[in-house]
Design goal:
By secondary structure, the chain is α/β, with parallel strands linked by helices. The chain has 4 domains: about 140 residues, Rossmann fold, CATH 3.40.50; about 110 residues, Beta-Lactamase (2-Layer Sandwich), CATH 3.30.450.20; about 80 residues; about 150 residues, Histidine kinase-like ATPase, C-terminal domain (Heat Shock Protein 90, 2-Layer Sandwich), CATH 3.30.565. The protein is built from 15 helices and 17 strands. Helix 6 runs antiparallel to helix 7, helix 12 packs antiparallel against helix 13 and helix 14 packs antiparallel against helix 15.
Length: about 475
Amino acid sequence: MKEENFDSMYTILVVEDDEGLNRLIQKRLKKAGFRTEQALNGADAISFVRENPNTVLLLDYLLPDMTGEELINALATQKCSVPFIVMTGHGDEKVAVAMMKLGARDYLMKGMSFLDPLPQVVRQVLNTLTTEKKLAETEATLLKSEEKYRNLISNLTNEVIMEFDSEGKFTYVSPQIFDVFGYTPDESLGLTAFDFVHPNDIGKCLEAMAAKDAVVNLEYRSRHKDGHYVYVSTTGKRIPDGRGGEKIIAVARDITERKRAEEKIKASLKEKEVMLKEIHHRVKNNLQVISSLLSIQSRHVKDKEALELFDDSRGRIMSMSLIHEKLYQSEDMARIDFANYIRTLIGKLFHTFTVYDIKLNVDVKDVFLDVNTGIPCGLIINELATNSLKHAFRNDREGEIQVGLYKQKEGEFTLNVRDNGTGFPADLDFRNTESIGMQIVMTLVEQLEGRIELDRSAGTSFTIRFRALEKQTGEDYGIP
């Protein structure tokens, strides 16, 4: 009987609203031999699944019209659930856990080189689906004929079929156990699986055996007859034993090579992370060199207006350098804790202007921005805070500068920089001024595709509403 090709049996539907990244994911999967289709939103994905039940979803959690959780629940309501793998962004571990509880077969954290292990993850899921299908067929066959069942599992290749009683003792082991573990079936009968399991993995194996889940998937280390350990992936299911009790039927396969490949990928990712940290460190150092050169040059400048331009330029360079410094120091190389960044930035400005009588109030909680959005946002804060320090509190006037950055709905932010000083001149149009600082602010607001408003009622208050710049596409991940 010809073996079914399960790679071609299933269609991998890539549900990702970034069209460029969607195409690259499909390209990588097609190169590995999978059949793929695309959906750019949840509604299209639901329509496709209704027409194509043999589908596996590769699902981005955040879609334009719904979340991944809402999509899966909608499919369940329509009784057309399909297996799915969830893709989440950096720092979305809670989302990944929630989706795994909802039934996700696996998950991927988006980031640099995240496409590298993708074909392997998809193939593992298809292997699991294949195994479950075989288990279902095997269970049906058992009800008809024990002998047919024995013949079926004896002819499988590269997978070990095992039966355990309620105490975990082997009652049947297929001949393939010799190829994988070096034991004959007769040597295994009467022993328990725990006689082979690595001591550090026994706990999770006991927990899996005690679970009442319909199907249990487990990875652990098992001892080969010659003494070395191999990594094993086992899928097991409880079935009636025909005597009023239960037994466990399981399929085990050697995944040692896959684990070695995963370790190589982890080492490669670590190497790239170190390299990226070094890049941020060097960029920061280069910017500081430029700032130092400007400082040295300014010592020879006598014109007060020209000297002020030098100082303003150094402030702008400092705000960009600080972004790279924070990324270099951060565990998360993709995003910056902006509360910490703003306090450091304003603190440096206060030191530059030798400020003692002005209070600083920073209101930022749980706001993280990537470098593409962080640099223009930091420059805007630098310009507006510098403007307040220069012009709002003349003649040693006391006062306060407030900086607030608030996350609204997904991907949208409100930035407010205000002071209670003398106020922005009523006869001056901030959108059309000769001030280089305000021209820079307007350019950066436009770059962020934002909107800026000025309130002169109590000092000066600038409010800017903007969206985080578009997330990286596949090309930005360095994938050809």
